[in-house]
C-alpha cells in the first residue's frame, strides 16, 4: 500500500513487532513526533546505512510519550508495524523541518517452515549455551518468528538490513539457518580452545598408547 510518511532515519534496523524507546531532542524530530501525535499518524524509520538513507525501513507507531522535558525534549515508546520501501525521498517534507517520503508498505509474511524452525532452535540453544546465555534462550524461544530473534544472532547492521528486505518468513529462516550453521561451530571451537588453555600447567593423568 502506498502512503506518505514522515521519516526519521536512524543507524539501526527496526523490525515489525519490535518495541523501541527513543529520546527525541532535535527540533525537526520534536516537530515530527508532535505532528504524529496531533494527527494520530505513524512515521517511518528507514535504516541509515553506508552513509545514506536506505530504501527500506519500518513504519512506526507511537505507543506513549513517557516524559516531556522542560526544554521540549521527549522520551517516547514506539513499536514497529510493517516494512516499507521508499519510492520518493524528500529531505524536507512539505512545510516541515523533518524528512518525508512516498513509501510502499508490505504485509509481513509469518508463515514459517517447522523443520527449519526446529533446526534454528537447536543451533540457537548450542550458541547460547556456549556463550552462557541459557536464560536468553529460554526467554526468546517460547514461540518465535525470525524478527523476534534477529537482534540476538550476532548479525551486523548490513546483515540485519538484508533480513529486513526479505518478504517471506521462509526466506528469512533460511538466511538465519545459514548464518547459525557458520557461526555456531566457530563459537563452540573457541570455547573448546579456552578449556584447553585453562588446562595448560595442570598435572595430567594420561594413558600412553600401545605400540
Automatic annotation (TrEMBL):
- The chain positions of domain Lon N-terminal read 4-182
One matching Pfam family: LON_substr_bdg
**Protein name per UniProt:** LON peptidase substrate-binding domain-containing protein
Q: Lineage in the entry?
A: Bacteria, Pseudomonadati, Bacteroidota, Cytophagia, Cytophagales
